[in-house]
Each structure stands twice: as structure tokens, then as C-alpha cells.
């Protein structure tokens, strides 16, 4: 449900994201640390892997990886290459923009320096409209 342009737009909205994508592959970093990139599939044994623009590898908190994978196998999967690595593979055709924003934001938080995450969260809280309480 999301396309490459949507992924790039969402990633670009995250503070200090550097879009290192090419026409062949997507790649996003924050302060030199990658948080999302195109999956490189091994099509032929013993041959180089090939980037796939329809599948994004996305960093995740290690403790959340299994839950993400089991939440919807049509959207998320992994392979041996990512065993023990804190990332999931996401099929773009099956993910909504809202889900992609949540994934990329969580991935960004995994890699961004704590001070940047804290400052970003404080800024977001400050710009949100105040909630009014219903009268008692």
C-alpha cells in the first residue's frame, strides 16, 4: 500500500535523517547509523544479493522483533541473514502509510542519539494541541 515515494517522504520527516537512496536501493541513516534500507535478496546461490525496492529492512527494538513478525506474516518476515539481528523485513505492498510511519519512527529511535530522541519528543509534546477535559 505504500510506495517508494511515501517511504522517502516519511523518512525525510524524521529529524536529521540522511536519505542515501539510489535508483537501485533505499537507505536511511541518522547521524551515520542506518535504520532502514532495501532488502538484498539472494536470487541465485553463491551469487551477489540483489536489492529489492518492494521490501524494506527496518531496525526494531530486539525485544519487539518476534511480536512484529508474528503480528502479520503477509506484511513482515525475516530470513537467516537477519537471525539475531534487530530488524524485520516489511513488504511495502501490504503496509499502510500509518504503519510505515510507526515502523520508521521506531527504527529511527533505535539509532538516533538519546539526546536527539529526547529533544524531538519534547518538541512534539510542546506542539501538540492541549486536550480539554470534559466537565465533571
Summarize the structure.
The chain is an alpha+beta fold. Helix content is 33%, strand content 24%.
Distance between the termini: 43 Å
Note the total helix count: 4
Q: How do the helices and strands follow one another from N- to C-terminus?
A: HEEEEHEEHH
Q: What name is given to the CATH topology?
A: Aspartate Aminotransferase, domain 1
What would the principal axes of the Cα set say about the shape?
globular
Give the low-pLDDT segments: none
CATH class: Alpha Beta
What's the total count of β strands? 6
Global structural class: alpha+beta
Radius of gyration: 17 Å
**Order of strands across the biggest sheet?**
1-2-3-4-6-5
Q: Main sheet?
A: 6 strands, antiparallel
Mean pLDDT, all residues: 92
Name the assembly state: single chain
Helical residue percent? 25-40%
**CATH architectural designation:** Alpha-Beta Complex
What fraction of residues sit in β-strands? 15-25%
| Total domain modules | 1
Question: Care to describe what's here?
Answer:
This protein has 136 residues and is of the alpha+beta class. Helix content is 33%, strand content 24%. The protein has one domain: Aspartate Aminotransferase, domain 1. It has a 6-stranded antiparallel sheet with strand order 1-2-3-4-6-5. The mean pLDDT is 92.
